Amino acid sequence: xxxxxxxxxxxxxPTRHALNWKEQQFFDExxxxxxxxxxxxxxxxxxxxVSLCQSFPTLFxxxxxxxxxEVDGVDKKDYMKVIDECYLCDLCFLSKCPYVxxxxxxxxxxxxxxxxxxxxxxxxxxxxxxxxxxxTDVVGKLASLPIISNVVNASTKSKIMRKVLQKTLxxxxxxxxPSYYRNKIRKTLGDSEKNIAVQAGIKTxxxxxxxxxxxxKFNEPGIVDDLVKVLEHNQIEVALMQQESCCGMPKMELGxxxxxxxxxxxxVTEMVQxxxxxxxxxMPVPSCALMFxxxxxxxxxxxxxxxKLAKRIFDPFEYLDDRRKAKKLKTExxxxxxxxxxxxxxxQRVQRIGPKTKNILSLIPNVExxxxxxxxxxxGTYAVKNEFFENAAKIARPVVKQVEQAKVxxxxxxxxxxxxxxxxxxxxxxxxxxxxxxxxKAYGI
Length: 445
Fold this sequence. Notes:
Order of helices and strands: HHHHHHHHHHHEHHEHHEHHEHEHHEHEHH
Structural class: mainly alpha
Radius of gyration: 22 Å
Strand order of the largest sheet: 2-1-3-4
Oligomer: single chain
């Protein structure tokens, strides 16, 4: 290792190491807590990440309130308070920490938190609520059934039922819960345009398998419909997998790595076959794209097909921007959108793809875009839990304030759940739109 690469602020790009979670040492409690103490001590001396999420203020308060004013004075039983506040947004690794690999201190805070969560899960210290909330496939299939979906959706809007949910499952009564809908995506795609003359872009084939995601299938299918219409409007062939399961991100955040492996096995065999047949994959939820691009290759480093697959996974606007560069993107827009507040989702930033959504939306005539690069604090389930809702709201407050001050015509986020969280905290009757829905509106299709 060169001196330059080892020093703080080195010019080399951050790198991630494989998690090696199948090795016995990964779950060794003594080794884990030694590493937690080492990393917490470095974080305590730096404190650069204090504004990112609640994990760091929690850690620093524990240190400052200890007898020694150092990490060695913190009761190790309290380490879990720090771990539980981490929702693996990855921003401390990406944008703040000067000690990430290849620095010799080798700090990867999010993956250390993941290791601790996996240890917690393995020792059966995860409650029923968290297991249910992370089972997005199972809950989605059940809650979206006819009649049942009506009952579920009515219950989440009832103050009485929300109090019941708070007492029984620990769901905060002010958290915005998603609605559930019957999965009609295959019918939607069946009614779409045919006979598309496929043309390759620079990195894209022009043939897309749409990984609809649990959220797209069950909670906001309109986003998926808008994405299909935009892709086909740009002469991109769209298909679905025969059998799509959850990407595994909710189970990974829970620490249930065995479940992640099972879900990976369900998806990857068919995905590799489709990849080899010349298809790309587009995912409308940034966390799902990140799971395939980054987390699965690191969790299963002995499977080279995952590295190949990762190169064929695209965020919707990443895909459209490649078409723009290849001069294959339609730029005839029928409707102006005015001023837009655009929240950049954390898991999109971590993909390191650049401002692709802004690039495409900026093509709309006379549009003005206010970019907000702050975490919304949602993370799928963190913001709905009783013990974390207030912290999630605090984290989102700077985002909400910027939206209010910008006085925009629309506000949007690549993460639809973050958009709904912002909408909930604004509490002014306005509605969040997904960027792909705004693009469809601008196209007039």
